[in-house]
Amino acid sequence: MAVLLDLKDLITRFYTEDGVVHAVNGISYKMDDGETLGVVGESGCGKSVHALSIMRLIQSPPGKIESGEVIFHGHDLLKMSDNEMRSIRGAQIAMVFQDPMTSLNPVYTVGFQISEALMLHQDMDKKEAYKRSGELLTMVGIPEAKQRLDDYPHQFSGGMRQRAMIAMALSCHPSLLIADEPTTALDVTIQAQIVELVKRLQSELGMAVMWITHDLGIIAEIAKKINVMYAGYIVERGNVRDIYKRTRHPYTLGLLGSLPRLDEAPGTKLVSIPGLPPDLVDLPKGCPFAARCTYRIDKCLEEMPPLVPSDGLDHVVACWRWEEIAGRDR
Amino acid sequence: MTNEEQALVQVRNLKKYFPIYQGAILQRHVGDIKAVDGVSFEIYPGETLGLVGESGCGKTTTGRTILQLYEPTDGQIVFEGVDLTTLKENDLRRLRSHMQMIFQDPYASLNPRMTVGSIISAPLEVHKIARGKEKRERVDELLELVGLNPEFVNRYPHEFSGGQRQRIGIARALALSPDLIICDEPISSLDVSIQAQVVNLLEDLQEQLGLTYLFIAHDLSMVRHISDRMAVMYLGKIVELADRDEIYLHPLHPYTQALMSAVPVPDPDISETRQRIILEGDIPSPANPPFGCNFNTRCPVAREICFQEEPAYREIKSKHWTACHFAEDFL
After folding, report:
1. How far does the CA of residue A274 sit from the closest CA of chain B (Å)?
2. A217 close to B265: Cβ distance less than 8 angstroms
3. b/e for A27-52, b at 16 or more Cβ within 10 A?
4. Which partner for A24 in A46, A81, A259, A321 could form a disulfide, CB atoms 3.0-4.6 Å apart?
5. Which residues of A touch B279 (CB under 8 A)?
6. SS3 assignment for A256-275
7. How many Å lie between the alpha carbon of A240 and the closest alpha carbon of chain B?
8. Which residues in A lie closer than 8 A to residue B278 (C-beta atoms)?
9. For residue A244, which phi and psi values (nearest 5 degrees)?
10. pLDDT number for residue A225
């Protein structure tokens, strides 16, 4: 498969009054055409900022993409002019945001907002674009879509708004869809609908999907590959089964232990991770997880471990002691 | 839990309607949001009852109405043998010290202008329980109990993280040594690793202090984790209530079945093989719930009778209650 996206040593920082926030601290990975990548981590781990950096949607100031390359279809997005970037955004890379309540404009009809992208990127006239918008809404499963084109966002429920956002994102056949916590604001039965929808559309349209979430449950259902992020670093990356069954990083282990499972036995205790994530303004020397880690040794406080292959080239981990953790596979 | 035990709280046919008015000057009462529409359940001493459902199902309103933070439209709440709905304000205030609440949003539920010490000691002052040195000692003790450093008493809420703030909220709820604590989505605004810390704390405190919890949340796996029994709500009604394992292994209501199957399981082996029931459509408005069974618009097994008659909430087998015409078919 062809490489769709090749991220090289991306660093994004925010220059605030309180100091420099080290949001993304040098991450590199490749994504293939049609791949589903899950990006998982807790708030402040840099998962959204890294996606916004790919889209070049980091507000500057205070934000700044310090260095790195974002090679998309062979071209470095970070070197493009604003105009070139505008023709990529929405057309080839589309994004769906967490909050469907605030990401639609309340004073325009849903139909208008979907056709806007079509008119801009696909040179459709108004009539064509409206017709296509109706088809798109039907595709994402909104009943009587044609009648609902003239509705305003407040007339849609949360799930329908997220469907409309997805319709908008897919309107120009992007080769990469970035979904940033698309179901976090939704109820669990509606979430299941959206997950099924994205899976179906992906197999129909063949696009790559980057699904950003804090929920390891959803990721297990949708992703083929997973990046686990912590304090602006990728700490573990691998196939779904690598991450869940052959966990190598103590943070990933901790996350999995923190989750109650619907099928757990009575009396199971959750294994929580002690302490708090580090302050991104004042990152500790060495591994950022060291302060909370039960596997900590002196070396961890001194030196950040590099991402190294563990049991296969595809499964990489940034921990000095991954081999010991590997010894206790489930 | 045994039925012979005396229930700590008995909720009987509780209803809470919020009126809808129309008109700018002459306000006409045009309808009601039926947030809670006739729920009945018991909470036994020392147990955790989980109340789960999607947004707008009335779970939070149920919790608040039990504490009489909302005046119920109809129904009874019997707490330690006393019907709260008939009490005068003063008597109610005295009883309130036996029941406390932990709120969802640790950023909104702590006064930003008060120090941690004054937040936690406020209940002690209101109920005139402790003063001076005794009060300060109690605050230190409470802070330690919830895993915070007693040296933090003079700090303000903004100096703490979300998880720590929730601990402050828990310390405040514990200040009066209550019997019942209503936990209203206490962890849903926290990160996963912090959620586990707070849940473990709640479990430890329950063991140490013999607390009774009503644990309200939308996260089914977390509710199942912490609860002894679970109630599932939909559109203002309880559709099913049973022991945590019983309801998981043998859900009898189609809504519970769909809800269980919609919960993502963090295990690729399971999520690949299991069958999911994907519900169609959205939750109807509680201002205008469907006639008959209120789940009939989304129910995969709805038949004619479901559109005509509301199913009775009944004990279909020992300690397993449900409201579905065809619950027997799933037995």
Report:
1. 7
2. yes
3. bebebeebbbbbbbbbebbbbbbbbb
4. A46
5. 189, 192-193
6. HHHCCCCCCCCCCCCCCCCC
7. 7
8. 189, 192-193, 196
9. -85, -30
10. 94
Of B225, B258, B271, the CB nearest to A260: B225
Strands B212-217, B180-184: parallel, antiparallel or unpaired by DSSP? parallel
* Chain B nearest C-alpha distance from A178 (Å): 20
Which pLDDT tens digit goes with each residue over B132-174? 889 999 999 999 999 888 888 999 998 888 889 999 999 999 9
Name the CA dihedral angle for B143, B146, B147, B151, rounded to a multiple of 10 degrees: -10
Contact A258 B195 (CB under 8 A): yes
Give the pLDDT of residue B89. 87
Query: What number of C-beta contacts closer than 8 Å exist between A and B?
Result: 127
For residue B283, CA distances in Å to A37, A186, B244 come to 31, 12, 25
Q: Which residue has the higher pLDDT, A147 or B180?
A: B180
Q: Measure in Å the smallest separation between the Cα of A203 and chain B Cα atoms.
A: 16
Spatial separation of the C-alpha atoms in residues A120 and A133, rounded to whole Å:
13
Q: Measure CA B259 to chain center.
A: 17
Residue in the block written with tokens 């407040």: A154
A 14-73 near B (Cβ less than 8 A): 42-43
Cβ-defined contact of B267 to A261 (cutoff 8 Å):
yes
Residues of A in contact with B187 (CB under 8 A): none
Mark which residues 198-257 of A lie under 8 Å from B by CB. Answer: 214-221, 240-241, 244-245, 254-257
Mean pLDDT of A124-149: 88
Tokens of A121: 């990127």
Taking an 8 Å cut-off on Cβ atoms, the answer to whether B193 and A266 are in contact is: no
Instruction: Tokens for B42, please give them.
Output: 């018991």
- Reading chain B (331 residues) residue by residue, the pLDDT tens digits are 444 468 999 999 999 999 988 887 788 888 888 999 999 999 999 999 999 988 888 999 999 999 999 999 999 999 988 999 999 988 898 888 899 999 988 888 899 999 999 999 999 998 888 888 899 999 999 999 998 888 889 999 988 888 899 999 999 999 999 999 999 999 888 888 888 989 999 999 999 999 999 999 988 889 999 999 999 999 999 999 999 999 999 999 999 999 988 888 888 888 778 888 888 888 888 888 899 999 999 999 999 999 999 999 999 999 999 999 999 888 8
Q: Which strand (E) or helix (H) includes residue A127?
A: helix A126-139
Cα–Cα distances (Å) from A229 to A127, A317, B81, in that order, read: 45, 11, 52
What distance in Å separates the CA atoms of residue B17 and residue B35, rounded to the nearest whole number? 6
